Amino acid sequence: MSSLGLALDIPRIVLYFDDGAWKDGWVADNLSSRKEETMVRSLAWAMVLGGCLAPALGHAPAAANPVKSLYTTVELRKCKRVNRHRDGGAWLCNGLAGLQVYVAEGDLRQFLSVGSDPQKRRAATQTLGAFNSIFERGSNRATIEWRFNRRGERQVPYAVIVRFHTSQEGRRGDVLVVSKVSPTETCHVAYIDALANSDAITLARLVADKQAKAFDCRNEPHTEGATGNSPM
């Protein structure tokens, strides 16, 4: 029992170094001195104590919480079906911050749009040329990553990232679709071949953060990074 009246069970810490290597444990292999080890131990204690004390101290200031992504899932059985036809249908699902998610399918391809009246936005008519689905084979759940800004207690999205599983002439692949989200518009901004780029999600987030807000939805989406491994 500590002097704070808390029983602290210190977990193993995963540390991330600038060289890109993940190191598991209290002391990373590349620590070259006792001084560095002491610094790591101090950081670990600060992280644990901060986590323990946060509920008692109230929410942390915004500067201490740099999270820019939140995630929601799409499961069509939990959504409202709004259209049915021979090749598929359309559904409205719940998204982030009260926004709706529109999912439609037809001709072995799927469409996804978000926002208020998402079915009326350009993204509702945009998809990839290759056959595709937001659902991985054998799964009925897809994930949407929302990039957002904080305005007080509100999360205000400016982009979404969705993985489309594609196929064409016996080839299969994964494509990350980055879409702009604004109060009035949602549209595709860029396509990223997730198999051709080793850190595709980082590239997708960079595109979302740097390009989505200013993107003109009258323009056509473009590819970013290496291509050629996934049908688009």
What's the gist of this structure?
The protein has 232 residues and is α+β, with helices and mostly antiparallel strands.
Protein architecture, described:
By secondary structure, the protein is α+β, with helices and mostly antiparallel strands. 16% of the residues lie in helices and 38% in strands. It folds into two domains: 14-58, no CATH class; 69-224, no CATH class. The protein is built from two helices and 13 strands. Strands 3, 8, 9, 10, 11, 12 and 13 form a seven-stranded mixed beta sheet that branches. Strand 6 (100-106) and strand 7 (109-115) form a beta hairpin. The longest helix is centred in the N-terminal third of the chain and has 24 residues, at 34-57. It starts with 13 loop residues before the first strand and ends in an 8-residue tail after the last strand.
Low-confidence stretches: 1-65
Give the topology string: H per helix, E per strand.
EEHEEEEEEEEEEHE
Q: Which word captures the global form?
A: globular
Number of helices: 2
Number of domains: 2
Distance between the termini: 58 Å
Specify the biggest β-sheet.
Answer: 7 strands, mixed
Mean pLDDT: 80
Q: What is the alpha-carbon Rg in Å?
A: 22 Å
Could you tell me the strand content as a percent range? 35-45%
| Helix percentage range | 10-25%
- How many β strands by DSSP? 13
Secondary-structure content class: alpha+beta
